[in-house]
Amino acid sequence: MFSTADFFVYTKWMAIATLVGAVVTGLALLFKWGIRFRLVGITGFMGVLVVGLFALSLAPFSHGFVPGSTKFSLVYDNGGNQLVIAVAPEITESQLTATLQQASDKFFSYGRLGGASSILLVRARTIIHPEPGVSQPLFLGEMRHQAVAKPDAGSEIRLNQANLQILHRSIAKNATKNS
Question: Does 66 map to a domain?
Answer without folding.
Answer: no
